[in-house]
């Protein structure tokens, strides 16, 4: 079996605020070590369970957080920025399953460090389905016929995954108290949980989350200036009286890249 693992950071055990996930802050080095060890808990179990190939994609911020020298030696690591498909770079139909580790819930809902790509996004939709990073990435996996077998993060990310993906296995490593506080397992206990959940997930039948054939992407921004910047993307329109930018895509891959471009443009907005 060939397994794909996308690893974000906000949903990792014990990490609760920017000091843990921002490379310029004092807790970051601790955070990336915990992130690496948590990834190993899953990867080691996958190899021990018979997976022949495991590809890990570092999916947080500049995407160079995981400490490659500490990973299982047979791991293949996708690292660095810029990636044409960001959090799902390298995912294709050769994989039998995908796992999302360290994931958080979407913007505008409770959960630890919730957001959707950038902090200027309030909501994202694929047709009428509201999605965050988790849902959008699951749709890309589904485009290739790849099921998402496991989602690990806080309780709110787990609930979001279970609502989107029938029969998915979830691993709750912390419970949200607020957006910057949680009741967390220790890394040692989280590793035990992830080992057990990875073994469970590899045995279950999960259907891919198949995206619509010609998806309509709609992104609601917090500020009209962000919508104006995003609207520089060709083929977009701002829905009248809103901060929602709409894009009609030929397939989910095009929608995903449009989302990346629109959010990158929106980050240029200033608030003076």
TrEMBL record:
GO MF entry, a single one: metal ion binding
Pfam families (UniProt xref): Peptidase_M55
Superkingdom field: Bacteria
SUPFAM superfamilies in UniProt: Dipeptide transport protein
Gene3D superfamilies: Dipeptide transport protein
Annotated positions binding Zn(2+) 1: 8, 10
Positions bound to Zn(2+) 2: 8, 60, 104, 133
Signal peptide start and end residues: none
Record-linked CDD domains: DAP_dppA_1
Coiled coil, from the record: none
Active-site positions on this chain: 115 (nucleophile)
Keywords: Aminopeptidase, Hydrolase, Metal-binding, Protease, Zinc
Protein name as it appears in the record: Aminopeptidase
């Amino acid at each position: 079996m060939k397994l794909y693992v996308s690893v974000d950071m906000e949903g990792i055990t014990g990490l609760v605020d920017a000091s843990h996930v921002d490379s310029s802050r004092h807790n970051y080095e601790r955070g990336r070590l915990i992130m690496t060890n948590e990834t190993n808990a899953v990867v080691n179990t996958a190899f021990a369970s018979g997976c022949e190939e495991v590809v890990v994609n570092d999916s947080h911020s500049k995407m160079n957080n995981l400490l490659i020298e500490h990973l299982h030696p047979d791991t293949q690591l996708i690292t660095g920025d810029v990636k044409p498909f960001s959090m799902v770079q390298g995912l294709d139909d050769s994989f039998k399953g995908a796992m999302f580790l360290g994931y958080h819930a979407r913007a505008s809902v409770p959960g630890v460090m919730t957001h959707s790509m950038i902090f200027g996004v309030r909501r994202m939709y694929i047709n009428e389905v509201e999605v965050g990073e988790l849902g959008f990435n699951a749709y890309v996996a589904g485009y290739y016929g790849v099921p998402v077998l496991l989602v690990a993060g806080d309780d709110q990310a787990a609930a979001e995954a279970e609502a989107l993906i029938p029969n998915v296995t979830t691993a709750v490593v912390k419970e949200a108290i607020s957006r910057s506080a949680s009741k967390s397992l220790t890394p040692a206990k989280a590793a035990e949980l992830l080992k057990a959940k990875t073994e469970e997930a590899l045995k279950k039948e999960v259907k891919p989350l198949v995206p619509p054939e010609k998806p309509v992407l709609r992104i609601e921004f917090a500020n009209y200036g962000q919508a104006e910047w995003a609207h520089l993307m060709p083929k977009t329109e701002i829905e009248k009286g809103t901060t929602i930018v709409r894009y009609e895509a030929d397939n989910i891959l095009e929608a995903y890249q449009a989302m990346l471009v629109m959010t990158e443009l929106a980050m240029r907005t200033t608030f003076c």
